[in-house]
Amino acid sequence: VANPRKSQALLLINRQEIWSVDFNSQAAELQGLGVDAYDQDVLEQGVLQQVDKAIQEANQAAAKAEAEKEYESVLDDIRSCTTALKHINKILEQLTPHASVKRQKENKVSINWNFFIVF
Q: Are 26 and 37 in contact (CB under 8 A)?
């Protein structure tokens, strides 16, 4: 059984794209820890923007993959039709001389009958 986490891309939130609270505005307890503090609303908005962007990119990638798949299918259909048309043209080329000879014979017989009827 495949591990589902390996087949799915992880979304990593880039904290550098989210504004942190200015160092001087942080509580004294946090200043000494060397950690970034975030306003909850700003943090949530920044995370949601990155999630939305990731979803949009994933949807675009999926749509592109589907379009490429459809494109390849259409190309396969075109190749198949082209091959079939070439085969039909070969058959028609082979039949055309026989058909024209047959028509010439029919025309000749028709002309001969017309000749006899006139006299």
A: yes
Domain of residue 30: give its range. Answer: 4-118
| pTM (2 d.p.) | 0.57
Confirm if 76 and 84 have CB atoms less than 8 A apart: no
Q: Which two tokens stand for residue 79?
A: 């190749």
Counting the structural domains of the chain, the total is: 1
Q: Looking at 8-39, list the stretches that DSSP marks H as alpha helix, in order from N- to C-terminal side.
A: 28-31
Inform me whether the pLDDT recorded for 110 exceeds 70.
Answer: no
Contact in structure between 42 and 15 (CB atoms under 8 Å): no
| Separation between Cα atoms, residue 111 and residue 104, nearest integer Å | 10
